[in-house]
């Protein structure tokens, strides 16, 4: 695997690649406030190995969003970018890597970014895998989209309670306190398959790699423009992976997303909450992504 800093408009993004650049590209897009480390090394390696019946490898790319990891970091509370920048960074990153089209795999906010990229830049998206996310609504006025038409169940009571009374910020200068904060944040949204040891290992890595872990909260301060289209415009083959125990976006969100994208396929994941795919789900998640991203893979119905 190779880590590099890439120049994009207004920022440097830290990215890491696995596999052969000549193979089909998979771009992993993380959730809000998340550094790329939450995409486990072994998960990325499994995708890069491409152990599928067709036998092709993959060129896997993961990256730190702005204000996470080693990417461009602004002072906490003062982001120099917009939500539109976060949404445009995947295409900018592909440009910097010299990749024309990629298979996008997005989790949570990253799933929203992947949806937006597929709507607004269809020529750059070979396929979509949308995980632990919800349908984007709110198209531009001329699209005729009624953003209030879709009514889905809200978060579980324990998540609502967490939103009402969030935990205090840690001492950002204390790495151990930062790690505990990250671990508890993941635990609150995970399902029965929560892996405490793996989460602790990743949290330590995130804390050690981050220029300023407090800056990640800048993601909550940025605003985005209306979508220039709707999910009905998506033409990429689409796979929706959703945890059966997601406390933020109950499974109905995944079902609605699969319904909104023509030909999309829904796969529910037992024991999974609102989280990056835990190891217990890799036996389903990895083969599903490899099948979708194989040359001449899953046809669009």
TrEMBL record:
| Domain called AB hydrolase-1: residue spans | 24-274
Biased composition, Basic and acidic residues: where in the chain? 61-73
Please give the organism: Promicromonospora vindobonensis
Pfam families the record matches: Abhydrolase_1
Name one molecular function that GO assigns to this entry: hydrolase activity
Question: Per its record, how is this protein called by name?
Answer: Alpha/beta fold hydrolase
Tell me the superkingdom of the source.
Bacteria
Which SUPFAM superfamilies does the entry mention? alpha/beta-Hydrolases
Sequence segments annotated as region (Disordered) = 59-86
Q: Which UniProt keywords apply?
A: Hydrolase
